[in-house]
Amino acid sequence: CPPLPAISRPGPASAVPRMADATFDPACVPNPCTTLRPVSAAGAVGAGAVRPGVVSLTLGTSGVVFATTDEPLVEPEGRLHAFCHAVPGKWHFMGVTLSAAGSLQWYHDTLTPDESFADIVAEAEHAPAGSDGLLFLPYLSGERTPYPDPLARGSFVGLTVRHTREHLTRAVLEGVAFSMKDCFGLLQGAGLGAVKEVRIAGGGARGALWRKIVASALGLPMLTVNSTEGAAYGAALLGGTGTGAWPTVEAACDATIAVTGRDEPVPEWTKAYEALYPRYRAVYPALKPTYDSLGS
Length: 296
Hints:
The protein is α+β, with helices and mostly antiparallel strands. The protein has one domain: ATPase, nucleotide binding domain (Nucleotidyltransferase, domain 5). About 40% of the residues lie in helices and about 15% in strands. It has nine helices and eleven strands. It has a seven-stranded mixed β-sheet. A two-stranded antiparallel ribbon has the order 1-2. It is globular.
């Protein structure tokens, strides 16, 4: 068994294996390999979130709020995660909700498997902001942020006979947005500092309705960029930087990534969410004993 390579910081080329050794083709040229960071950091690079003040918000299977910092920040209860960034000399601080677009995937596969995502989300546009008092907790896989609790459960709370499928769909989108707001609030409470812009990415961010719901829940514009490949694109930029195509990760992002869209908060929705969010926050503590008993 060959020895493992030495541990090194991300970026520079760390090995130059010959593809000929693997393919038995002497015409193959050496291929540089660079040391990369985990998918969350690569995703932030793919969105151009490589400087303090620029936050990346990803609506993938899980949801990630990812911030670049000059120094490591600490959240004493372990609800946030701090690591070295893919950008040399920087740190990243992030909150993760385990079922973001994964919640919509579950909802679709369970209740509307014969309809497209676009169709069911379009239905949700007919429901009012706040879904007429219907709440959804997106803890379908347990949770990490803001509650590191493997026994947490997903829940609809507040169902009445007047609620329709469009209310349920919108409640799922809003529940995920509130969970991302939880992450964002913890980051700011731990000393994140001023936020200049939020760049939203991931499969869930392809739909304008969900982007506007998140913008309205956070009270901040959501910016989209020309890169749609996320972490894969970020990994390519890190590889290019490591092989000398760009002098720094920041330079790679500046050369290739541009803001292409902006979704503003909807004032009426923001007002509705400000009233509903404290009620959302009250549900988990009230249901935790039940979650614990079900999990046991």
